[in-house]
Structures are given as C-alpha cells and as structure tokens.
Write a structure and sequence with these properties.
single chain, mainly beta, Immunoglobulin-like, 2 domains, 5-stranded antiparallel sheet, 21 strands, 45% strand, disordered C terminus
Length: 345
C-alpha cells in the first residue's frame, strides 16, 4: 500500500507544469528619472558648443544587484554608450550623463528624448529574459537664431551711404536732390520669419535749431518676400529739400536697416529704446550729407576729436560718436552705429 502511495505522488509531481514554477521567478526593473541642463543651439555664429546635457538616475529598489542595458531614442545625435551595460547595486542608484547635439538643419523648437533601461541579469548570475523595460522622457529646447546681412550694392551720389560717421566723411548736400541706393539683403535662420527693410532720417547740428524747414522724404518700410537661406535686392531713394541761407552746418543722416519684420516695426515705433529692451538681429547702414552753413563757408567752424561711448544692449552694440562743445571747441556729429548684428526672440 505504501508503495502505491509513493508511485501516485511521483506521478502527480510530474504533471505540475514547469511554467507555474517559472512564474515565481523575480522580474526586477529599475526606476528612471531624467533631467536636462541647458538648451541646444545650431547657430553657426554662436561660439558655444550648442549641446545640452541629459542626466538620468537609475534606481534599484531590489535586494540584489542588477545589470542593465540602456538605449536612447533621439532624433539627433548623442554620446551615450548603449553598447555597455550598467551595474546598479542592491537598494542603490547610478547616475548616467550624456550630451545631445542638434543637426545643422534642425528647426527651432522642442524635441523629446526617451531613455530606456532593461534588466538583463540580477544577483550576478541569474539572467532575466522577460524583464520589463522602463522609460523616462525629457523635452529639450533648440533655440531660435536669425541672421540678416544688409549690403549696399550701388548708390547715387557716390559716397552717400555706408560711410564712417565722422564729420569729414559727409559730402555737401545738394539744394534739392535725391539720394538713391540699391541694397542686397540676405537672411538665414532655423525658424520661419518675415523680414523687412526700414528707413529713417535724423538731423544733427552743433546747437539745437528748428529742422522743420528741412524736408526729407523717407522711403516706406518694405516687407521682403524671402525665406531663410535666400536673398533679394531692394531699390530706395531719400529726397531732400533744404532751406536757403542756413547759418550753421546741419548733418542729415540716412538710416537703412533690415531684420525680422517684428524688430523693424519695433525700431520704427520706438527707436533706440527698442534695442535696449529686446534681443534683436537688425543690420544697419548709415549715410547722409551735410548742409554747409554760411558761417562755415566764412571759415568760422572749428573741429575736435570724436568721443566713442558704448551703449550696448543684449547682442546689439550701439556707438555714439560725439564731440565736446565749449568755448574753444565745437562738438562733432552724434550718430548711432550698430556694429554687431544678432538675432531675437
């Protein structure tokens, strides 16, 4: 009887499915928390690396060490080594750091990176073939950049535009005349934007006088039908009428500037104050002429050396060229020159 009971027990044990034993095996996993430091940039005029750093923490809450395979889903390039495994001790964590880089043609905006981790071994000996893959995602921002280049291709009269802002650089104005120019404007960037060219005029003299008798017809702003990576040409003309018998020199300054439509509108509305408040990518070209006064013709004008005052804002640098007016000297021309062009918002 006892023999039959032993045989029956053995037969029952052989009928137990092996899968029921396998279900009791642990399937460890690690928790992932990723963060990103900084933004990316693919601005060719930016001296920084343009890369952002990603840090991922692998947290192992199990009582045995695990070996983890990792992977990264990312549209651009990264320097994380996915060919090597990472060991995470029992009830501990490991930090993973790597850099991400955008492509040269990437468009500005947000891109999502996904970091994956899968336990392939635990307890130093046991392989895990069915362990779940855990993930975490981070959004990484690619900054906008804008480039605008304004170039004078031709002008009439010669020597009117793109001249040094010094007294001796200004030619005498004609009594009634047109000052025309042809410009080439090239734009580039990693986002879509409208661009425009604007025009402005200013007056300056050694003493404050009434400029109402100086009539200057300024060209209207022109919105450009071009996209980043393209260029176009624009013709424009300033028209000047001056009063007769002017006793003092009066400098008539022509400003030509190109940039994103938003920034051109802002500068036309607010002038130099707009450059102080906003990041802008506006390229300026200055020109003009001098209405020679009767006192100058009689040899009464004196000159002095210029003083350069730096009044910079964000990424645009404005230089004010001036002189000192006093008992023995006469101040030179005050004018704005923007010498470094950058891009906006």
């Amino acid at each position: 009887m006892k023999a039959w009971m032993c045989i029956t027990t053995l037969l029952l044990l052989t009928l137990i499915p092996t899968t029921s034993l396998a279900q009791t095996e642990p399937q460890p996993e690690v928790d992932i928390t990723c963060t990103v430091s900084g933004d990316m940039s693919n601005d060719p005029y930016d001296d920084s690396s343009g890369r952002a750093q990603v840090a991922c923490e692998l947290q192992n809450d199990d009582v045995y060490e695990v070996e983890v395979e990792t992977d990264v889903e990312w549209v651009y390039t990264h320097d994380h080594d996915t060919s090597s495994t990472i060991r995470v001790g029992a009830n501990s964590e490991e930090q993973v750091y790597f850099l991400v880089t955008p492509s040269e043609t990437a468009q500005a905006g947000m891109e999502t990176l996904t970091f994956k981790a899968t336990v392939v071994q635990y307890g130093n000996v046991r392989e895990c073939t069915n362990c779940e893959t855990t993930t975490d995602t981070v959004d990484i921002f690619l900054r906008q950049w804008t480039y605008v280049d304004l170039e004078i291709q031709s002008q009439s009269p010669e020597g009117t535009f793109d001249i040094p802002m010094y007294e001796d650089s200004f030619q005498p104005c004609e009594q009634d005349g047109d000052y025309s120019l042809q410009t080439k404007i090239a734009v580039d960037g990693n986002h879509d934007f409208e661009s425009a060219i604007g025009f402005e005029r200013q007056f300056y003299s050694y003493s404050g006088i009434d400029y109402s008798d100086f009539a200057v017809e300024v060209p209207q702003k022109i919105t450009l039908d071009i996209e980043p990576g393209q260029s176009t040409s624009v013709d424009a003309s300033f028209s000047l009428t001056v009063r007769e018998n002017q006793t003092e020199d009066v400098y008539v300054i022509f400003a030509v500037f190109a940039g994103e439509l938003e920034h051109v509108n802002g500068y036309l509305a607010e002038g130099d104050d707009y450059l102080d408040d906003y990041y802008t990518a506006i390229d300026f070209v200055f020109g003009g002429c001098v209405v020679v006064g009767l006192d100058t013709e009689n040899g009464q004008r004196q000159s002095s050396d210029p003083i350069i005052i730096d009044a910079s804002s964000d990424d645009s640098y404005i230089y004010l060229i001036a002189g000192i007016a006093g008992a023995t000297t006469v101040c030179l021309l005050v004018v704005l020159i923007v010498v470094l062009v950058r891009k906006s918002d």
